[in-house]
C-alpha cells in the first residue's frame, strides 16, 4: 500500500431534515432526528480538524442545510480555518437576507437542485407544492448576490425526455455550471428503481444532447455529466477510491468514506465524539477496510484497471449481491453483471408510483439487500 | 437569456482569477492549489509558474515573454502551451 494522501473534500451533512421528499434522496432510509444532530461547537471543531488534516473544500449539505439556524456561524468558521465553502441546497428556504448573511460569512458558491423544468412535474417529483417556483427565486438571489451558481438536475426516466429544456433553463437562470446527474441506485433510489431507471434509448438520446450542448455552450456554461453505471461496461471509481479523497460527516457525527457507507454491514464507523478526523482518516478500521487494492477479489485483483476503478462501488456491490466484497456488478467483467440486465429489462414496464422519502417507523430498520432471485 | 459569448484567449487579453476562484499555497501538501466551484485543481510546477504571472495586470503576451526569457525556449512552443492552458481555465470559469 502506498502512502495515504490527505482528503481533498468534506461532505458536511448538517441535517437530514428537508422540506422536499425526492424519491431518489441520497440520505439513508433511516433518517437522523433533529435531536441527534451535532451542535454548533462540534461542527466548528470538526471543520478545524478537517482543515488541519488537509481538506480544502467543504460542501454543506443535508437534508436541507438551511434548516440549521446556525448555518452562517458554521460557514464563517469554515472560512476562518481556510476551507472553501459550498452550499448544496434545495433553495426552498432561501431568501435574500439569509443569503447575504452567508455571503458575509464567506460562502463561495451555491449548488441548487432542480427536479424538472415546470411547476407540475418539478413539484410532483420533489413531493412539495411550490418547490419549482421557490427554486427559480433562489437562483435569482444567488445571481444577484454575485455568487457562482451551479444548477443540479438529477435525471431519470420521468424527466429525461426534457433534458434539452433543462439545459436551456439552466442557461436562462444564469448558471455557470450545470450538473446533469443520472440517479445512482442506493437507498431511496433503489427502492424506486422501477420508477426511475431510464431505457437504453433514453440514455443514448440524453448523452447525445449533453455532448451537443457542451460544444454549443463551451465557455458559457460548463456541463458536468454523471452517467448511470447500470449501462456502463466499467464501474465508476466510487469517491475516487474508498478513503482516498473524500470523507463525509453525518448529522449525528459518524465519519464515513461515502454518504451511503452506513448501508454496509459489519463496519463500525467512528464518531467525531470519539476521535479526531486525522485518527479516523489514517487509522480507523472502517477507512482501512476497502482502501487500496489488498481487499480485492478476482477479477479486480489482477485487472489492469484496479487503480483506476478501485473495484467500483462497495455499496452497490452489497445492495445488489448481498456481499460488499464482490466486484461491483456494474463492471462487465463482474460475475454478477447479469443482475443489471434484469433491472434494465424491467425498466421498459410501466413506471410504478414513487415511494417518497419520509421519516417512518416502518423504515427504522437496516435496509435489506435485494436478493438475486428478486431481480430475475 | 443571460448567455454571454465565449471569451477567447488571445495575446492581448489581460486575465485575472474569477472572484470565487482561489489560488493558494496549501501548507499540508506543501503545494499550490486552485479552488473553484465544483473544481479542485492541483497544478504542476510549470502551471504554477504561469498562474503566478496572472495578476490582472500583465497581458498574455507579457506572460509568454517572461517565460521565453526564463527558459530561453522558442516563443511559438511556449505560446501554444500557455494559451491552451489559459483557454481551458477560462472555459472552466477559473480565470476571466
Averaged pLDDT of chain A: 91
What is Rg of chain B? 14 Å
The most extensive interface, with participating residues per chain, is: A-B, 31 and 25 residues
Largest sheet of chain B: 3 strands, antiparallel
Distance between the termini of chain A: 39 Å
The major beta sheet of chain A can be summarized as: 9 strands, mixed
Shape descriptor of chain A reads: globular
Shape of chain B: globular
Order of helices and strands of chain A: EHEHEHEHHEHEHHHEEEHHHHHH
Low-confidence stretches of chain A: 361-376
- Please list the strands of the largest sheet of chain A in the order they lie side by side: 7-6-5-4-3-2-1-8-9
Instruction: Please give the oligomerization state of what you see.
Output: heterodimer
The averaged pLDDT of chain B comes out at 91
Protein architecture, described:
The complex is a heterodimer of chains A (376) and B (96). Chain A is α/β, with parallel strands linked by helices. Chain A contains 15 helices and nine strands. Chain A has a nine-stranded mixed β-sheet. In chain B, helix 2 packs across helix 3 (75-91). The radius of gyration of chain B is 14 Å and the shape is globular. In chain B, a hairpin with a 2-residue loop joins strand 2 and strand 3. The model of chain B has no long low-confidence stretch (mean pLDDT 91). By secondary structure, chain B is an alpha+beta fold. Chain B has three helices and three strands, in the order βββααα. The A-B interface holds A 6, 8-9, 52-54, 56-57, 84, 86, 108-109, 111, 143, 146-148, 150, 171-174, 176-177, 179, 218-222, 224 and B 1-8, 18-20, 22, 26, 28-29, 33, 35-38, 40, 90-93.
Task: Give a quick rundown of the structure.
Helices cover 34% and strands 12% of the residues of chain A. Chain A has 376 residues and is an alpha/beta fold. In chain A, α1 packs parallel to α2 and α2 runs parallel beside α3.
Provide keyphrases for this structure.
heterodimer; A: 376 residues; globular; disordered C terminus; B: 96 residues; 3 strands
Amino acid at each position: 500500500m502506498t502512502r495515504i494522501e490527505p482528503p481533498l473534500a468534506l461532505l458536511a451533512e448538517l441535517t437530514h431534515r428537508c422540506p422536499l421528499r425526492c424519491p431518489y434522496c441520497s440520505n439513508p432510509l433511516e433518517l437522523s432526528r433533529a435531536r441527534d444532530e451535532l451542535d454548533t461547537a462540534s461542527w466548528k471543531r470538526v471543520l478545524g480538524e478537517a482543515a488541519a488534516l488537509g481538506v480544502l473544500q467543504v460542501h454543506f449539505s443535508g437534508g436541507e442545510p438551511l434548516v440549521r439556524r446556525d448555518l452562517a456561524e458554521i460557514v464563517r468558521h469554515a472560512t476562518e480555518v481556510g476551507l472553501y465553502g459550498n452550499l448544496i441546497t434545495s433553495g426552498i428556504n432561501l431568501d435574500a437576507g439569509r443569503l447575504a448573511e452567508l455571503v458575509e460569512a464567506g460562502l463561495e458558491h451555491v449548488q441548487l437542485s432542480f427536479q424538472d423544468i415546470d411547476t407540475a412535474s418539478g413539484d410532483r417529483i420533489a413531493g412539495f407544492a411550490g418547490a419549482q417556483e421557490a427554486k427559480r427565486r433562489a437562483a435569482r438571489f444567488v445571481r444577484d448576490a454575485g455568487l457562482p451558481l451551479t444548477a443540479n438536475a438529477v435525471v431519470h426516466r420521468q424527466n429525461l425526455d426534457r433534458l434539452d429544456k433543462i439545459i436551456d433553463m439552466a442557461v436562462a437562470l444564469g448558471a455557470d455550471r450545470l450538473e446533469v446527474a443520472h440517479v445512482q441506485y442506493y437507498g431511496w433510489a433503489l427502492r424506486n428503481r422501477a420508477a426511475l431507471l431510464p431505457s437504453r434509448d433514453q440514455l443514448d438520446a440524453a448523452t447525445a444532447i449533453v455532448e451537443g450542448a457542451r460544444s454549443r455552450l463551451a465557455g458559457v456554461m460548463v456541463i458536468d455529466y454523471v452517467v448511470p453505471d447500470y449501462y456502463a461496461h466499467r464501474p465508476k471509481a466510487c469517491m475516487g477510491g474508498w478513503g482516498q479523497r473524500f470523507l463525509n460527516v453525518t448529522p449525528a457525527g459518524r465519519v464515513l468514506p461515502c454518504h451511503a457507507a452506513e448501508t454496509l454491514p459489519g463496519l463500525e464507523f467512528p464518531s467525531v465524539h470519539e476521535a479526531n478526523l486525522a485518527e479516523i482518516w489514517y487509522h480507523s478500521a472502517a477507512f482501512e477496510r476497502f482502501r487500496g487494492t489488498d481487499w480485492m477479489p478476482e477479477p479486480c485483483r489482477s485487472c489492469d484497471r484496479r487503480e483506476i476503478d478501485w473495484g467500483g462501488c462497495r455499496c452497490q456491490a452489497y445492495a445488489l449481491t448481498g456481499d460488499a466484497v464482490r466486484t461491483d456488478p456494474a463492471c462487465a467483467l463482474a460475475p454478477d453483471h447479469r443482475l443489471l440486465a434484469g433491472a434494465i429489462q424491467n425498466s421498459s414496464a410501466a413506471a410504478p408510483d414513487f415511494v417518497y422519502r419520509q421519516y417512518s417507523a416502518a423504515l427504522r430498520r437496516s435496509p435489506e439487500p435485494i436478493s438475486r432471485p428478486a431481480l430475475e | 437569456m443571460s448567455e454571454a459569448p465565449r471569451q477567447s484567449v488571445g495575446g492581448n487579453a489581460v486575465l485575472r482569477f474569477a472572484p470565487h476562484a482561489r489560488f493558494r499555497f496549501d501548507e499540508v501538501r506543501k503545494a499550490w492549489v486552485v479552488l473553484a466551484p465544483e473544481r479542485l485543481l492541483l497544478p504542476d510546477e510549470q502551471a504554477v509558474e504561469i498562474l503566478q504571472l496572472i495578476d490582472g495586470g500583465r497581458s498574455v503576451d507579457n506572460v509568454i515573454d517572461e517565460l521565453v526569457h526564463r527558459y530561453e525556449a522558442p516563443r511559438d512552443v511556449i505560446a501554444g502551451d500557455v494559451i491552451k492552458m489559459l483557454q481551458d481555465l477560462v472555459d472552466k470559469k477559473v480565470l476571466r
